[in-house]
Amino acid sequence: MDAIKFILNGGEVAYEGAATDRLLDVLRDCFGCKSVKCGCKEGECGACSVLIDGRLINSCCVAMGAVEGASVLTLEGYRETERFAALSKAFSELSAVQCGFCIPGMVLAAESVLAKNPHPSEAEIREGLSGNLCRCTGYNAIVNAVNNAAKEANGLW
Amino acid sequence: MDKISQSVVKKDHAPKIEGRSVYVGDYVTARDGRPILTGKLLHAKVARARVLSVQVPELPAGYFYVDAKDVPGDNNVNIVLDDTPVYCRETVEYIGEPIGMVVGPDEKEVQRILSGIKVNYEELEPILDLRAAEEAFFDYEFGHGDVEQAFREADKVYEEEFETGYQDQTYLETQGMMAEPEADGRMFVHGSSQCAYYIHGAVMRVLGCGPTGVHVLQDVTGGGFGGKEAFPSILGAQVAVAACKAKAPVRCVFDRREDLEYTSKRHPSLCRYKMAVKDGRVIAVDCDVIFNAGAYSTLSAVVLQRGIIAAPGVYNIPNVHVRGRAVKTNTTPCGAYRGFGGPQTFFAMERMMDHVAQDLGVDEIAFKEAHLVKQGDMTSTQGRYHFPVPLQAMIDEVDAKCQLKRKHEEYKKRQTGRFRRGIGMSAYFHGAGFTGSGERDLIKAVAKLRKYADGTVEILASNGDIGQGVRTTFPKIVANELNLPLDKVYYDHPDTARVPDSGPTVASRSLMVVGELLRRAAIKLRTVWVEGQEQEVEERFQEPDFMIPFYLDKFQGDAYPTYAWGVDAIEVEVDTFTGVTRVLNAVGNFDVGTPIDYNIVVGQMEGGFLQGIGYASIEKMDYDAKGRIRNNSFSDYLIPTTKDVPNLTAMLHVEKYPYGPYGAKGAGELPLVGATAAYVAAVEQALGAGKHPLRHAPFTAEDTVKELTKEGN
Amino acid sequence: MVNGFVPKTLQEALELRATRDLVPYAGGTDLMVENRENVSYLFLGKLPELRQITVDGEYVRIGAAVTFTEALASDLVPPLMKEAVSRIAAPAIRNAGTFGGNLGNGSAKADSVLIEFVADAKLRLVSVRGERLVDVDKFYLGRKKLDLASDELIAEVLLPKRGLENYYYEKVGGRNALAISRVSFAGVFAEQDGKITNIAAAFGAVADTVLRWKEVEQMLIGKTLAEARALKADYLKAYEAHMTLTRGRVSAEYRKAVCMNLLGEFLAKFGI
């Protein structure tokens, strides 16, 4: 039986389990990607967001068979990038991180917004983050942080 | 801005944004390297029944079934009273009540065993509706003046009934606790929580051991909002019993469905208000407040106390009578949620004031302004507002920010189009710290500072950072007094094995009460500081001497040393075709004293305010005819997204409290308290004030269409 | 691969579908929430034959595995469909969710399906036996019941190229994003030489399937606007009579009131 092969944070990996298994569970339990959080298991909160081939996806709504041959990026990989450093700085300056549980998904959603549109309007940022629930902040600090990161990006995106 | 208010990078920023923080669900092994067993609760499927038998299928090796028979100590969880069982007694009292727990190494196998368990019930008639409740867990009454006389003398007497629904805290991280039996015989309990010492006390009692037989650590916690005040004591006790039986580490993390259905939430309320008016002034109010406590009393006593003390609002009314009851129903036990009873009664009082003003033909805002309490006035419990009450200035600031009064006038004109607008205002407070003599008599907070030889200082206290930032603000206070750079002072998540009991992380008390203890401790340390030496100092809570002693039996005295004040203005546009209401503008003005960190405080205010708007509008939760919570998933229980209230502004008005650190007072809960009243007032104005008195929250799109259909629009 | 197949071509997929008991998996956003036990998936998301948006003389053809995000980026997809699709959930769901999946899930709340109903779209269904075209309203047999044989797959949505320019669309959800439709409405209007040639109205999320009553629409077909205005009361009454709605997250009464309001607004927009 062939394993499911995919790229995880830049490295080739193989998964021997079932194609019906949930990417979220596999990332957390088999590959140690604990930054990927489970908030609801129904695609309604965004805490488990990852980037698959550059697209923002809720990993709770992905079966392993669907990632065969794909490239999956979690915060464990993304946090090594300059773009992450810029977002982290912007978030820190506005204390946009409270309980932190939504943050890994939120950061990847922010990356997804800026990758598509390096100079988004506030409304576009809000649209881009609209699948990521945060119960702590009321969102203003997060939206403003993404906006600031975009402004100070100097061509990072 | 005071120096202490200047924002810093939060101490937990980097680990959280890098995804390195370890929440309870993230542990790969127990602390000693042993594998962690998964525990899953067997929840009752009926609202009220005698449990005749529980048939557990044969268990594979390494799997356990745990229930009340396995509790080594007392099968009661200590909260305020002790009526909440760890695992159910002979009866189950609500859908979801834990009957037992299945524990084992493989989660899927645990799930399989769980679904194979047969429970035989003898069903009993449940009581679901609070109006039908027969038993009151708590029944309080107080007042001042002569209410009956006032009602006799009144020009006009008004009576209205207000209702509010459930609200779920909806922290993004669900409830989760873990228990690890340690080699030295102690039970180590840790998880997502607000009050390490509450859990410590509860687990001691359940295991029947002394204070050194247990220690409790607060893990990084993905939001609490009150929801992790008492509930982790129950879940902590359950996993501790399971770990005892299995002699192995056990973790139980709820899935979202369990969390929404079975964990404590804001009490639904029914408030009957009667108000007497003479010569255009309110001369008496009689408030009858009923909270649906659910099946067990948990925190209902204290939630109700706070709720009824706030029942007459922020107004100077000479004659007051209040009765409050928390009634038992066969529904999920309700508990703490940010605001703690206040949002329900402020909703009733603010709406009542609006409606009376409308009937008198005077402007609602002006009517409220004319009745505002002032410094020196008597509180509802015959205490005093000892410090300046800045509400009028705060209303003026809100008015300047969003043209509240001009718009309020403009929207009074009859509107007939599809889209109609309204603006509503609320004024409210949140009593800072524990109600009554709790700090002095029950909590008796102790905090310590330990200075190490290398000059770093560790804060030893039991208040958990649940996102509100105490891991940053506590060190800011201490570093400021010691003239140290912030990185020399640190505060870890509390473990009861090594920190004193500085009290729970509740009641907006951490910063004001414990922060002040730490400030004084830092001053003490400064005076005894010896370079290169390890030193420790301690501070204990002292009640400020200005306080009028509070007597709970009479509800008399200062219920709070001081108050955080709030004024909200919410402007909406209602689509009369669909009922969908857009918030055009939400402005909250919050006086929480000196912000110890500007960004942190603004973040708290914005977050709390949005939760309040959710409560007012879209966060509807109800149970079905059998008593099961219907809204048990994230597609059925809706909280605001980034796109729901894009125009939300939090303003800070600073009225310093001389007994809080640098003038800080309670902050966390305030911003949620007034949103419901302001929002519903705005919708009411859009639909035509006077024509459509709105008396419940949340007020949904469906409610709006129903209201308009009544009229035949 | 255990419990799953990732075919490389549509032909391979059809052979697998014909010979094994497999659940077609496109974007996963509905299936994974259902979390079915003991099933095997047939992963269709990467099949090139299902990933195209093309146009011919009559139709815009949207492949079953085209995602909502891809449709939003395409110049070929009509604005009405884009507007509906842009209101689906949130970006991460639109990045994964597909047109085929929206259909195959069988829900009356599916936002793209509403548009297919109002547009008289056809579906191309394929199997090893061949292929057939079916009208979308015939495809839905009832709640979660589809006219889809156990060896068939949805290959394409055929959306008429013309006639969707004049439309009225409204989605009522519980909030502004991440919202499942509580009521959705789409109306399409066309006139030629002063006479109404099309006045289609479809209602989503209010019953077991998307609703459309062509016989009521017929009342106004061939009429001038003035004649239509005269018939308006009867026309609305006919809708009232047909509309037996179910309760869901909101009551049937609310749904009906909103449907009638939006229907009225649709007429008003086009001068009736």
Description:
The complex is a heterotrimer of chains A (157), B (713) and C (272). In chain A, strands 2-1-5-3-4 form a 5-stranded mixed sheet. With 157 residues, chain A is an alpha+beta fold. Chain A has helices at 23-29, 75-78, 82-93, 103-116, 122-128, 140-151, and strands at residues 4-8, 11-15, 49-52, 55-58, 71-73. Chain B has 713 residues and is an alpha+beta fold. In chain B, a hairpin with a 2-residue loop joins strand 15 and strand 16 (281-294). Chain C has 11 helices and 13 strands. Chain C has helices at residues 10-19, 31-34, 68-73, 79-86, 91-96, 99-104, 111-118, 136-139, 214-218, 225-242, 252-269; strands at residues 4-5, 23-25, 41-43, 53-55, 59-63, 122-127, 130-135, 140-142, 145-146, 153-160, 167-173, 181-192, 195-204. In chain C, helix 4 (79-86) runs antiparallel to helix 7.
The CA-CA distance between the termini of chain C, in Å, is 59 Å
The radius of gyration of chain B is: 25 Å
Give the tally of structural domains of chain C: 2
Structural class of chain B: alpha+beta
Q: From the helix content, strand content and strand pairing of chain C, which structural class follows? A: alpha+beta
Outline of chain B, from the CA principal axes?
A: globular
SS element count, helices of chain B: 18
SSE succession of chain C: EHEHEEEHHHHHEEHEEEEEEHHH
Mean pLDDT of chain B: 97
Protein chains sharing the most extensive interface: A-B, 55 and 57 residues
Roughly what fraction of the amino acids of chain B lie in strands? 15-25%
Shape of chain C: globular
- What value does the Rg of chain C take, in angstroms? 19 Å
Q: How is the quaternary structure best described?
A: heterotrimer
Quick one: how many beta strands of chain B? Answer: 26
Offer a quick outline of the entry.
Chain A has 157 residues and is of the alpha+beta class. Helix content of chain A is 36%, strand content 13%. In chain A, α3 packs across α6.
